[in-house]
Amino acid sequence: MSVGKLVGNVKDEFMNPKIGPSETALSKHINYIKQYGTIDEPILVKKLMDGTYEIQNGHHRWLAAKMMGLKDIPVEVMK
Q: What is the rounded CA–CA span in Å between residue 18 and residue 57?
């Protein structure tokens, strides 16, 4: 799925400006992408009414993919 179709879940601490992303987790995912060219597991998402997909699990993988210039990443859509 296109990285651009995913949106962060505002209820997740990742999206909270006072907490934000973990540099350690982000670095881990960036290193994985450098080595393998993709993320290590699909991002869990929920389809929204506007056609975008809200991340339920995988914010760090999503940000790492965006930072590394990946256009498409594996996702699992919740039913």
A: 19
